[in-house]
Amino acid sequence: MKEKISVLIPTYNVGKFVEKAIRSVMQQSYTNLEIIVVDDFSTDDTFSILQKLANEDSRIKLFRNKQNMKIAATLNFAIEQATGKYIARIDGDDIADNTRIETLYNYLQEHPEVKLVSSNLFSINEKDAILKEEIYPESFESIKKVALFSSPVSHHWLTYKYIYEKYGNYRMSGAEDYDFILRLISNNVPLANVQKGLYYLRIREGNTISTMGLSQIKLSNYVKKLHKERMKNNTLTDSYSLEALKKYLTTSPFITKMHNISASLFRKFVLRKKREGIIYLPLAILFSPYYQLQHIKNKLLYKIYKK
What we know:
The protein is an alpha/beta fold and 307 residues long. It has 13 helices and nine strands. It has two domains: 5-202, Spore Coat Polysaccharide Biosynthesis Protein SpsA, Chain A; 251-306, no CATH class. It has helices at residues 18-26, 46-56, 70-81, 100-110, 140-146, 161-167, 176-186, 214-233, 242-249, 253-271, 274-277, 280-287, 289-306, and strands at residues 5-11, 33-39, 60-64, 86-89, 95-96, 116-124, 130-134, 158-160, 191-202. Helix 7 runs parallel beside helix 8 and helix 10 runs antiparallel to helix 12 (280-287). The chain starts with a strand and ends with a helix. Residues 6-118 form the Glycosyltransferase 2-like domain.
């Protein structure tokens, strides 16, 4: 029998999508799975749907936080429960191709030097319609080249559990995946992306993927700052602390309000067809020029250096 893989699924108020997400894991071609679902104190029908699914499949281990803990703490709790040699991820509103885990597992077996692997993905809307394909750099050298522009590895990766034990768990909700990937790059841990779309990432109102909020932009800047610090000092540690993070994220109410308007306009640009949505882009920039232009610049540089 193949080795056990623990699949971590954090959920929060995703009742409309969660059954499809969980079933996409239940139906994986790789069957030796431990499906660890941690609900972050949802206030909709998410948990009742999860209970029904857990009764259907004995591989599902269902937990619920006693209060809303945010995604980083929720994932860290899930890692503590994991007994598999490998750790995989899926979010509670996304969908996995039924060969995803097997494909990533086989890649790690064929490339023992690689310690974490992800893949390309398709972004989808609330009705499951494909919006576009996201292509990620394949090799570790290419990944390192674009790492400071945008996350070069999508969070639906497969890695070894010992990687978390050796390099630390998630630290900050909102940029937990990017921070983790940059810490691995700082430590020269080889990463890769399979050049095949194996994941369907949902873009919807209410999730952080649909737009780059001000706090997420500042979080992204903060984890880049920590990465540069580690690289400059040639050290595995950095100056991260909750106090320093809170100080870095402090923003005036006016700037926050302007960026929220900008983010709403940018979301319309993302979710609509190019011809219909293009009018929203200059308006989004107008309301938050510094942060939106920074975001757009990083996206453009990422595309240029990824080639």
